[in-house]
Amino acid sequence: MPILNAKTLEFFSHSPEQTRRAGMRIGAMLQPGDLICLSGDLGAGKTTLVQGLAQGWGSLDAVSSPTFVLVNVYRRLDGAHLYHLDAYRLRNADDALDLDLDTLLETGALVVEWPERIVGALPQACLWVQMRYLDDEQRGMVFEPRGGRYERMVMELRRKTYGGLHAARDR
Question: pTM of this prediction?
Fold first, then answer.
């Protein structure tokens, strides 16, 4: 678990719907080249968050876990792509190099589940989301921005989630 600081946002979801809504808020901000890393044990809510990300981004496609195909591609009407990589079956960063992650990031946004398995193949700048199972309905999420673009995303997520409650801290 990362140490929280002023740039980090901790969020507690009380339902799968609330987890999807958090994802929708982030998804609406995604641009080509963005990298979202979702870390957490099985059952932590990663795929549920991706469902919201894809919906907020404007995907036409249903979201499912890409565990067996490694990468799912979600499309938008404008032709943009959102790539969803599940690194669970990859042994290390060398395995990920065969997936040409640079090209994926050039042509769309990339969401990676189990990023800790391939961290050496990923750019340092990203939005790292540590997710954890709390109980059957609740999940804990820590949004850790790594880079200026992602700091702005977390500030915007904080504003959209909590309104003016944290406005003074964001300045």
Answer: 0.89
